[in-house]
Design brief:
With 318 residues, the protein is of the alpha+beta class. The chain has helices at 24-30, 52-60, 186-208, 220-223, 230-240; strands at 17-18, 34-39, 46-50, 69-73, 79-86, 112-117, 126-131, 138-142, 149-152, 159-163, 170-174, 216-218, 247-249, 259-277, 280-297, 301-316. The strands form two sheets. Strands 1, 2, 5, 6, 7, 9, 13, 14, 15 and 16 form a ten-stranded mixed sheet that branches.
């Protein structure tokens, strides 16, 4: 079936493509390598649906009803061309990979797969559903059989909910950026955001369909615990061997590989994706952690190195 949403035919991709032979291959790769979704095309047409009951309740209690509409996408309109690339081989000049809101470039990173969505169609391309997002908003799409893969935007605090029939589930991407602004501490602020997103999902589910029994979610507590508390950060630093002090590494070639490392930086974010096998969908969240450090060698001066680790867990069906 020809899809008008795809990018143009091209042979211009670099030799960094990673083939998928069956849907489960993506799960296997995500258990070892971080996967970062990178969108190259605008959002498709959508409809706004008012979550009337919750919106009225918020007005009655003099609360801000902002974000209490759902952006609903057409199923087939969300199908794009996807391709996996080794980020370490991608040029930032031709295919920049950037975490939204941070400006951090991931080109050249080790153990990272860039899932480029909406790019040129090549032999290794596959059809994939892509769900967009927005600040303080709810975005959703009902999946079908047009593709065997699903992904949504890279996660830095949003919640993803899945509900309905495994043959045709509805996926929600929620953001509550403004929630918890007056919370006394970070833990309370994060919890307020999660609770607001849960309330908005339940309002959307009652309006648009779905049952509580068939629903499951992935929140920031699942995919980025290392960024939410002092204890979480300490655990992440311990796992990645970050002490805050300069350290040295001498390789097999003596002074030519002598490193002095004096700048460590850690970050942890998430990716949610789905695969369809035997007519049924399953969904996974990936906790992906990045360790970047600057180092100095006798021969090359200052340079940088960034490497990812990943954990992948199925969360739906629960």
């Amino acid at each position: 079936m020809a899809l008008c949403s795809r990018g143009p035919q091209s042979g211009g991709w670099p030799l960094a493509l990673v083939p998928l032979y069956k849907p489960q291959d993506l799960v296997k790769k995500a258990s070892k390598q971080a996967v970062f979704p990178s969108l190259t095309v605008p959002a498709p047409p959508s409809q706004q649906r008012s979550l009337v009951g919750l919106k009225r309740l918020m007005h009655e209690r003099n609360l801000d009803p902002h974000g209490l509409e759902a952006t609903v996408y057409d199923t087939q309109g969300c199908v794009l061309s996807g391709a996996l690339h080794e980020a370490v081989e991608l040029s930032e000049n031709t295919n920049p990979i950037t975490e939204p809101g941070t400006g951090v470039m991931f080109n050249g990173d080790h153990n990272l797969l860039a899932l480029v969505v909406g790019g040129p169609v090549v032999a290794q391309s596959f059809d994939i559903y892509y769900l967009h997002w927005g600040f303080d908003s709810t975005h959703c799409v009902r999946l079908g059989s047009h593709a065997n893969y699903f992904v949504t935007a890279a996660l830095q605090g949003c919640s993803i909910f899945v509900t309905g029939d495994p043959a045709s589930p509805t996926v929600y991407h929620l953001n509550a950026n403004s929630a918890g602004a007056n919370a006394p501490n970070d833990a309370a602020r994060y919890q307020a955001k999660v609770q607001v997103m849960e309330a908005r999902f339940n309002a959307a589910r009652r309006t648009l369909g779905g049952s509580q029994q068939s629903s499951a979610s992935a929140s920031m507590h699942d995919y980025m615990p290392g960024m939410l508390s002092t204890a979480g950060t300490a655990q992440l630093e311990y796992e990645r061997g970050v002490s805050g002090a300069p350290w040295y590494d001498v390789g097999t070639h003596g002074f030519r590989s002598f490193w002095k490392v004096d700048q460590d930086e850690l970050m942890q974010f998430g990716t949610v994706f789905g695969v369809r096998e035997s007519g049924r969908w399953s969904f996974y969240f990936q906790k992906r952690s990045r360790h970047e450090y600057r180092y100095k060698t006798w021969m090359s001066g200052r340079a940088r190195h960034a490497e990812w680790s990943a954990e992948c867990h199925r969360f739906w069906p629960a």
